[in-house]
Structure formats: C-alpha cells, structure tokens
Queue: 3 jobs
Job 1
Amino acid sequence: MIVTAAGVATTPAGAAAILRTTTAVRERANQLLHRARAGESRWFCVDDTALALASAAVADVTVIRYPDLEIPFHSRWRHFEAGGVDRNASLDTLLGSADSAARAQIDLAVVSVLLDAGAGPDWSYVESGRRFTRSEGLAVASWHAFLDGVFSSDPADPLRVDGTALCALDTATLAQAFQVSASNPLVGLDGRVALLRRLGAALGADGRPGQLWDALAAESVSAGSVLA
C-alpha cells in the first residue's frame, strides 16, 4: 500500500494515479532533496551556501540577455525559431479561428517534443540551404512534417495530428520527412515511429492532442488539472 498526502492507494493503478499528481511530485522531490542534504544520495550533493551565488549568476545573465525583462517562455516554440526564422508567424497565417489554431499548435508541440530525443552526431536537417542539427534540427524537421500533413489523416486538413494518421505512420514516411539516408542517419528512427504509434493508439481514431485545449479552455485552470 502507498500512503501519501495526495491519498491512499491499494492497487497498482491507484498508486500510479497518485504518483502522477503534483502533490506526489513535490513529496518525492522533497525526499530526494533531504537525502542529498544528509549525504545519503549516490547521485547528488547539495551545497546550500552556493544558492546566492547561483541566483546572482542567473540574474546577471538574464538582465544581459533580456534588459527589458520581456523574457520569452522556454518551450518547444523557441526551437521553432532556429536560425532566427519566425516560423510561428508563418504558421499563424495558415491557421483559422483562435480555438482551431490552439488545437493545431498543441498538436504540433506534442508530436515535436516526442520526436525530440538524441539525433546522433551524423544527422542534420537542411532548410533553404541552412543545416540544423540536434534539437533544433528535429524541431525544424517536425515543423515541416506537420505543415506537409504527415501526421494528419485528412488531406483537406493537413495542419493537425490525429490518432488514425499516427497509427498508420511508418518508418519510411518519417525517414523521408526527416531527410534520413545512409549518409544522414537518425538515431532511434524506429523507436520514434513506435512512440508516435503508441500515442495514436492512446488517442483513438478521432483523437487529437489538441483536444487538450477543449478540456482546459476554462476561465481558471490549475496546474494539477493540466498534469492530470
């Protein structure tokens, strides 16, 4: 049996549900912090006296980079700006209403993040003569795959991700979208396809990651609800 401030679980499914709550995440993080402070962790040590120095260093770099303190969110959307290209603006011109745009943007962000694992040292993606590698390359590649309708089962509505298309995705299709070849190998290509197919199975034929928008588009939404 697992007992936490978030609740009590007597089954594996119940335990998993509890461990996915924000309360349980905070509890486990606190336990690891206390272990590290006590010198009981094999992997981490904590020097609380360095906190002020670390905070000052972060503040200094932040002010240098963003003197007006207009700091953009750190997210997949920053990778979509690789090379200083405002791809977000070009996508905005293709999307419809605010609700449909939000669904499409969530669709894109989810599949792009799931495709963002180590690409290996030999892979790159070329866009208009410019070469991108690693996370930036994977972001740009997934961006173009999304615009090309690779993740949509509806040719009339390519700017979407749905369960039917993900379940039908194969290695050859993703390889072509990501410019994979014998001379441009992408590490874990089969695993990426398998992951997206599992997402498709979880969504169901008509399901979309973007439907999170409909579940969360309320006046007030808690972080715990988003995680759930």
Job 2
Amino acid sequence: MTFDMELLAVVTRRSDLFTAREAYATGTSPKMLHRAHRAGQCRQVLRGIYSTMPEPGRREERLRELTMAMMLSNDNAAATGRSAAAMYEWPLFGVNFKRAQGVWLNDNATRSNSSLIIRRPLVPMGVDDVDGWPVARPEWALIDLARDAGIVPGVVAMDAALHAGMVTCAAVEESLDQLRGSHRLNRARRMIDLADSARESAGESRLGIILQQAGFEVESQFALHRFWSGRRAFADFRINGTRVLIEFDGLTKYRGDEGAEALAQEKAREDELRSQGWVFVRVVWSDLAHPQDIIGRVRRALEMAHRTPSAL
C-alpha cells in the first residue's frame, strides 16, 4: 500500500497521526489499511487512530503521542494533568504514562477506558494552543496533575513551569480558589508551598522536597565566591545559615569526553570550596529512593560543618 499524498499532507500537520476515516476519504479501503498495518507501514495508537512513525522510545513521548491521539479521536477534548504536562514538555515523575488525561470543553459525560480518561471540568478552564492542539492552561494543568498523581509529581512539573516562566504561583492559587469545596485540593495547595522556580531538573525538585519535608530550610542555586579563581560558583542547595552544600548529580552529567572534562572541573571546584570550609553532600538519582539515608547524610554533614573552622 502507498499512502495518498492528500493523506500524507494531513499526517504532516498532525505529528504523523491520521484517522481511519481520513484514510478512507483518500481511497484507502479498510482492507488496504489493515494490510498496511500488518506490513508495518502504519501503527495503531488508539482505535481508529494510526501513526506512520515507529513507536517513540521515551515514555514521555509515548504519552504525548497517546494524548494527541485522544484529542484527534474526541472532538471538544483538551489535554490536562499529566497529558498537558507531556504536551508542554515538563518533566514527569510518578504518573500513569499509559493513560491519557483530558477534559471536555463542552457538556459531555466522562469517558474512560484503559487508554484514556476525559472528565467534565468542575468550572470552565482556559485552554492554550500547543502546536495546534488544545491544552489546559498551565495553572489548570498543574492543579489536575497534583490532584490526580499527588504532591511530588505536581511539584516536579510546577518547578519546570515556574523556571520557564510559563506560570506563576499566584495564577495557580487564583485558579485553585475557583475550585473551593472540591476534593484533593490539599495536594495542589501543598504543591504550591513546596514549588521552587530556581530548581533546574526533576532530580533537584525531588531532592528539594525531601529536604523541605525533613524540616531543613534550604536555598536553591546558592551563589558562592571562589577565592583561588575569582569566579562565582553555584550549589544546587545550601542549608540556610550553615556551610553545608548539597549537590544533585544527574544521569548524563559526566558521560563521554565532555563529561570527563566536566567531572575534572567539578572536582577542582569542590576541592577549592572544601578548603574554604564548605561541606558537600552529593546525591545521585538512585539515592532519591532512600530519603532517610539522604537525611542522615545531611545531618552528619551539619555536625561536620559545626566542627570544621571556616577558612574565611
């Protein structure tokens, strides 16, 4: 089977997605479409929705594709919650990547199956256009994400949205006020309390939450002066009023030749700051599954910093 050029034009506008009805309108019969599917020329994303591309590798990309398929197969549906986060390309953690989440823009009743859920909104919400797709405005998307998936997934996404200047805490609070009396709003309120626009990755967000919930007062992206080089340095976190710095090391930070150079520069920076009396706690992604261990290391670092005289 060879796809009609008219259909390919539709696919190009739709991120390689097309409906069975669009294929039939270009002269493709159901049997031809079935054969194309079996031959690997197209792939079914949802019932009646196909893609001409291989399945995306990353789960966030697969959720984005599933979300677009949901909207393509359901007129008057917009992405919200985790699906909106995928459309905005915010980092996602602790969500159901296999089920798209939407909201009706009319009075349709809730539609739910294993691949999607589309609810009627409690109050009318604003919608943005994201690459031609209707997506709940960031403040509404974040509230739905926190209510559905929990505080930590909400903070991870909200930190990214704040950092990118896509939303403000005030806008989220204003939208939240319109939902008074609704269930699970405490999750969204706590999300706002814990959010921090200075954090630059999902790992930093999760680490910041662990520190905050343990009762530590922290400052993100703390600026330091390096006396030897005369340069400024930034630490991911500093425990307020102390000489304890906490750094999060991501998965790809030190990979390859550039990573080796970055590691050498990082070691020189850390050696210089240690000589000035700063105490470091380094956290990697796997550590985040053991928050009590992190808390214990921070407390030991605080004790060490108390005993270590400052070089200043």
Job 3
Amino acid sequence: MTNSSTQTLRAINLEASERELHKKTDADFTEVKEAIVEGLLGLTEQKCVGSSPEGDVMLGARPSSKLVSGFLLPRYDQAGEDDTSDIHIATMGMDLQVHSNQSGSIELRPQLAIYVRELPSWEEISSPDNDMMPPVQLSRETRQRVEQRARDLIQEQIGELPATSGR
C-alpha cells in the first residue's frame, strides 16, 4: 500500500487485521482476498500479453522473450505436413469455458500489435534504468596483463612516496 502524502510503501499484516475485524464484526476478508487475487491476475495478464504500458516499448529483448499469450498447435495440410511458415500464421485460437445449460452469444474483439525492432539510442543504452550497457569482458590473458600493469604502477608510486617517521 502507498501513503499518498509521502509516496512510501508500507505493508500490513492481513491475517492479524482479519482476526481483529472478525472479533469486532464477525466478518472476514474473503472479498478482499478475492479482489487482491483478481488484481494480481489482471496485472499478470496485462504483462503477459503486452496490453499494459510496459508492453509498449521493450528495451534489450525480443517481444517473444518478454510476452507470452498462449501456444497453439500448427495447422496441417491434407498430406499431414505443417502448413505454418515464417510469413504465414496458419493457426489462431481461443479457449472458452461456458456453462452447458446456458445459451447466448460471444463477442470477439481481436487486437493486433506489431513490434518494430529499432536500434536503441546511446541514452537508452547508457541509462541504468534499462540495464543495457554491454559488459566489458576481457580475455584471461588481457585481464592478467592489466592487473599486472596496475600492480607495477602501484609499486612505482609507493616507491616515490616520501619516507615517514615511525611513531
């Protein structure tokens, strides 16, 4: 939870709060727990399918590495061969759960997102918020030479320090 005046996070003990409420009013937090779960599921779904603002721009990863909305089996032609190619998506689908004794209609509103790969700007690469700065990985031999050179320079500088009197 956030405190709107200071915008700091604070936690509460739901179990203790529920016990206290139950003592006073004989009620419980069942609906509160359901609302929390519903909210978490909604946030998870938005994140997985890219419908949240976090799905608008993805830095440092392919959309398929960050978004998952489902897995569908490929469509097969009459010869039993996979009819899917890189430019032809042959399978689309949806899972529904309906009550067997009910009738009605279902309205579908498909949406499409196209992700365009762009090279990031230097500001995007160097920003610590995006965690995209490539790590420097020296070979073992180069790293050992750099470390030895650093030790040599330190020893040179130590040798040039004026003598101190020991107290």
